[in-house]
Amino acid sequence: MKRGVPAVIGPQTDEARIAIEMAAEKTGAPLFLHGQDFTAHEEGGALVYQDEDGLLDLPLPRLPGRHQIDNAGIAICALRKAGVLPLARDAIARAMTDVEWPARLQRLTRGPLFAALPRDAEVWLDGGHNPAAGRAVAEAMADLAQHDREGEPRPLILVSGMLDTKDATGFFAPFRGLAAHVETVAIPDTPASMTAAALADTAAGAGLDAHPASSLDEALTRACLAAGRATPRILICGSLYLAGQVLAENG
Fold it and tell me: Which residue ranges form the domains of the chain, and what is each CATH number?
């Protein structure tokens, strides 16, 4: 935070919000708090944003996950308070429908990785690597599973690689009771990667059925076996380094 520079703050626990308010007061940074100075929520299939400058009725972000509604609200408020761009409603609406964010709940639909997968298998890619990301991604996967109940259920299989500097237990914990199985891999050419065996032990300690794989190809093959006769929903997750490898290998 800097004196006189607006600080836009998303949803926080009370403890965190109080600490932020104290820091802002000490620094002299004007705060704009979600839920107090601006709001963003879903209503009737639209994103409704409101602050002191008025209300905007916008399309929902094309990015999957309920957390992206909060992210969109923070982005709109930050740009408005920065005052560097004229922000017409149509420009903001276009941003909601055109936005792309690779490796953040990105759905892969084609490429070499699909050669060994059954037809209609779903593959999602996310580079989140901390407990908060685990909660957000698990919530999004749970929402997809809710829709499955109208048709054939898809077992969620994780393929995960993580750095040894991350809280892997905290990342995996939200998937307990949601993910049917975890295949773990070491991230190629990444010295700080956890070994597949160590990561599998960590996932098991978080209450998940887990198995180490020697490569991404093996992990995907085993993910399909773990799904049995059902069509799998595969989530490749745990590290932006792993996500980068996947995108490169998949062209």
Answer: 7-97 (3.40.1190.10), 106-249 (3.90.190.20)
Q: Do 154 and 178 meet the contact criterion of CB atoms below 8 Å apart?
A: no
End-to-end CA distance of the chain: 40
How large a percentage of the chain has pLDDT more than 70?
Answer: 99
- Judging by beta carbons within 10 Å of its beta carbon (0-12, 13-18, 19+), is residue 125 exposed, middle or buried? buried
- Report d(CA 146, CA 91) in Å as an integer: 33
- Distance separating alpha carbons of residues 99 and 78, to the nearest angstrom: 16
Paired residues of 234 in beta bridges: 123, 157
Alpha carbon distance 201, 98 (integer Å):
40
C-alpha to C-alpha distance for 22 and 24, rounded to whole angstroms: 5
Q: Which two tokens stand for residue 60?
A: 């929902």
Nearest to 233 by CA among 196, 177, 179: 179
Q: pTM to 2 decimals?
A: 0.89
pLDDT at residue 180 is higher than 80: yes
Looking at the DSSP bridge assignments, the partners of residue 108 are 123
